[in-house]
Amino acid sequence: MESEQKVNREQLLRKIMEYKFYVNDLTLYLDTHPNDRKALALHNEYVEKLNEVTKEYEKMYGPLTVETVMESWEWARDLWPWQRGVNR
Amino acid sequence: MWNYSRNLQYPINIKNRNPEMAKVIISQYGGPDGELAASLRYLSQRFGMPDQNSKAILNDIGTEELAHLEMVGTLVHQLTDGASIEEIEKGGLSAYYTDHGLGVYPQAAAGFPFSAAVLAVKGDPVADLTEDLAAEQKARATYEKLIDLCKDDPDVVNVLRYLREREVVHFQRFGEALNGVQEKLAQKRFYMNNVDKAMDKTNDMIIKNNMSRSTPGMNWGICKD
Questions:
Q1: A2 pLDDT above the threshold of 70
Q2: Distance, CA of A14 to CA of A16 (rounded, Å)
Q3: Which of residues 54-113 of B touch A (CB under 8 A)?
Q4: How many CA atoms, within 13 angstroms, populate the side-chain half-sphere of residue A33?
Q5: Start-end ranges of CATH 1.20.1260.10 in chain B?
Q6: What is the count of structural domains for chain A?
């Protein structure tokens, strides 16, 4: 059960990383092509997807940023992404 | 300002410790073409940029470099975390261990500490963006050397390949930003007021020699008096 949860958490986080990557790469492109409507539409599409999956992840596994309402101080309790074996 | 997000830009999961690899990879943390130098270079140069596109690209690539700094630090940490004294000695990390233990210190592979002398801020958009193009190529070349040196561990090579690819993308974007700046430099200027020929010429020279110091109005729009 616990490992199943770990797999689900990793999968959700991969989706977040993927969408963040699209948003970042499109951001750099739009910085030098500010009038590209197609790229802007893609950017907006991925921002929406990112927000959606981030909400889902944070509800289940805790905050990704400090700008999240928390019931207890989960921020410092959770493992950090650079730690060995964490894989995030 | 910046917000921290609790994820790496690209996942890292190193299964096998290898201090020898950490010893060379650390160059991309605090070495001459490393991610700390890159982020400081771009985030400092952005203040001197004349147009919105180049300000934006330096801000956003500088920010991404901070995420890469975290990734390289993570590589070094995971390759050394929990290493025994024997592993440290065998991996050639004794000298580093003496000064820094298994902490991650910004230094080059050859051991010298990070220095801002490896980067430049000229306050001149053409000079700065041209330096940025070279910086991206040097970082790409460094990652290629690291990929050769770390070829035995696919977990490491996978991450290095990702970082290398980002340098290629950044090079492209800086090239576009430089083109934009040069196009604007070549534009004809139109003045709202009558400006005598001598003044016009002086303004042109000021603008051409030091675009970043001229006021926004003087750059390529309205010149008052």
A1: no
A2: 5
A3: 56-57, 60-61, 64, 70, 73-74, 77-78, 81-82
A4: 15
A5: 19-186
A6: 1
Q: Which of A7, A32, A36, A50 to mutate to test the interface with B (most CBs of B within 10 A)?
A: A32
- What CA–CA distance (Å, rounded) separates B64 from B62? 6
Which residue(s) pair with B113 in the sheet? B107
The residues of chain B scoring below 70 in pLDDT are 193-225
Q: Is residue A14 exposed (0-12), middle (13-18) or buried (19+ Cβ within 10 Å)?
A: middle
Q: A12 pLDDT exceeds 90? A: yes
What pLDDT, on the 0 to 100 scale, is given for residue B222? Answer: 43
Residue B219: its pLDDT value, please?
Answer: 47
Question: What is the topology classification, in CATH, of domain B19-186?
Answer: Ferritin (1.20.1260)
Note whether B131 and B120 are within 8 A (CB). Answer: yes
Q: Which domain holds residue A24?
A: 2-77
pTM of the shown model: 0.88
